[in-house]
Amino acid sequence: MKSRRMFIKSALTGIAGSALFSNLEARPLVLPAKTTLASPDNTESYWEMVKQQFPFASGLYYFNNGSLGPSPTMVRSATNEYRKILDEFPSRYMWGDWDDEKETVRKQAAQLLNTSEEEIALIHNTTEGMNLIARSFDLRPGDEVILADHEHTSGTIPWQVWQETKGIKLVKPVLPIMPSSVDELVSIYKKAITPRTKVISMCHIVNTNGMILPIKEISELAHKNGILVAVDGAQGAGMLKADLHDMGCDYYAASSHKWLFSPKGVGIFYARKESQHLLKPLIVCKGHTDKTIRRLENYNTRNLPEVLGLGAALSFHQLIGSDKIEARTFELKNYFKSKFEGNSKFRFKSPASNQLSAGIQVLEVVGQDVNEVQDKLFNKYGIDTRPMATFGLNGLRISLSIYNTKTDVDYLANALKDIS
Length: 420
Ligand SMILES: Cc1ncc(COP(=O)(O)O)c(C=O)c1O
Hints:
15 helices, 2 domains, single chain, seven-stranded mixed sheet, Aspartate Aminotransferase, domain 1, four-stranded antiparallel sheet, Aspartate Aminotransferase, domain 2, binds pyridoxal-5'-phosphate, alpha/beta
């Protein structure tokens, strides 16, 4: 990078003199503004202030973070600035001048997930990460991959497309929508394991009803049996603290555009040091033989302003803090649930305990079709949620995120009561 800067400097000085070069000095990056976000305050007015960081379309009450997260203003501004800088001197920033900044983002992601930066690749989304894993293996006929019935298509289709034609067996345990304990879930996975099992691919948090799956327990079980664990972290990263070394999985793919509020089309991929050599880049181009994890993220020209925007999103997350975000998520969940206590017109379809669900709750309005409830909620009240009809849920998937205040939750609960 330095030699490229020197080259540009001498080339430009030679052609047009130092006055021209001085206009072309590397543009400083816009660092996220220090705000009162970092305050220890935990009052409702603090969370109102957090909400102000996320301007929404007028009249919209957004409870649909599980589908896609918004970016706060500082992330939008930083990303726009990166785009501007890039467009002022495209070749310079795309190939070389932002190498250090990209490494900083990798470090920030590693810090968030408690991993080494040598275990983090900056990719586009969870779908890519799950494809990367499934594509890497050359499984033999009869080898088995465990994929529970609640897995997202991003986790299942890659196994079907890249591996099923080879005669592998996809083992699909059925998960209860309301498990009573972690042990109940672990025992379901345990029963699905056979001597032919090679991989368990599972969500950190399922997108259907927000159930948290016991990654740590399953990873321990799997590793005792020589099985790899691939985790779809699309709904986990950013909502819950994720210490991946402690969780022990081999791979973790996350879409930072959900609960980390990054620009769209960026994601974080983790591969445990010991399991990294098994992975092959999905796209091969210059850099594919790199011995480090960087070989998994080379696409030649790519969305660098968004990747650096992820850095701004990680800074935003750090300013508030993972502990505080996780605690607020549970606070909102329990506040929301308390609004329907003892009310027979409603039925929760997400497991109650904090070990088994967090910021995604599915709620059925008893006796009403979920699609009609969702329409009414949006058309009359401006509330966006996701209807979930599969697995007999017939409930609204309500995402509770840090920009949803208790006043917003009151508004949602009252609207639902009106509809019921
Ligand atoms: C559990 C889960 N996995 C994967 C995805 C796909 O995410 P992306 O489109 O960002 O790859 C989603 C999206 O909703 C999801 O909920």
